[in-house]
Amino acid sequence: MFKRVIGQDQSEAQRSAPSLPETRSPEPAPAAYSSQQPVVSARSSATRNVLSSDVEIKGTVKFANDLVVDGKIEGEITSEGCLTVGENARIKAEIKTGTIIVYGKVHGNLTATDRVEIKSTAEVVGDIKAKTLSIEAGAIFVGKSTIGTPTQAAATPQPQAKNAPTPESPKQGTLVGTAI
User: Fold this and answer.
1) Considering its fold, how many domains does the chain have in total?
2) By the number of CB atoms within 10 A of the CB, which of 15, 67, 129, 138 ranks highest?
C-alpha cells in the first residue's frame, strides 16, 4: 500500500525516476497554526496527504483517506482513514482513526475502528482500542490494550469472578516494555 521512503536519499530517487508533468496546482505555503486556527482539514481526494518533518501543529487535525505524519502534532487527530506516523514523528495527541500505523513516537490514547500496527522503531505510551493489534519485535508499548469487538451480551449473565474477562468482552491486556 505504501512505499517506505523515510530515510532514503530523495535526490537519488529523483534522478532514477523519469520526470512527469505536474498535474496538480501548487500547494500554498504552509501557514503558522495558532489557537485562532486549530483545525486543519485535508482535501477529500484519493491522494495521500503528507506532513513533513518540519511541520508542527497544535490543535485538531482532521483528514479524509490517508495521512502520513513525519512532523510534530500536539492535540487531537480524527479521521475514518489511515494515519501513518513516520519515524521522525513526535505526536502528543488523542488519535481516533480507522487504521493507525506507527513508526515514530506517540504519547496519547489510540482508538482505531480497524487495526493498529506498532512497528519495530515505534514508541507508544497510551491506551489502545482496536479490532486488531500487531506489535513488531523491538517496539515499545506502555499502556493498556482492548482488542476485538464485543459480541452480543447473553440474556442471563452468569456470575463472574472479580476482574475476570467475560466471554462477551473483548480481550484486554496491559503491556509494559519492549517486544522481543
Assistant:
1) 1
2) 67
Per-residue pLDDT tens digits of the chain, which is 180 residues long: 455 555 544 444 444 443 444 444 444 444 444 444 444 444 444 578 899 999 999 999 999 999 999 999 999 999 999 999 999 999 999 999 999 999 999 999 999 999 999 999 999 999 999 999 999 999 999 999 999 987 765 455 555 555 555 545 555 565 556 555
Residue 156 CA: distances (Å) to CA of 114, 121, 153, 159, 163: 30, 46, 8, 10, 19
User: Domain for residue 126, yes or no?
Assistant: yes
Grid look-up 530523495 returns 10
8 A C-beta contact, residue 103 and residue 83: no
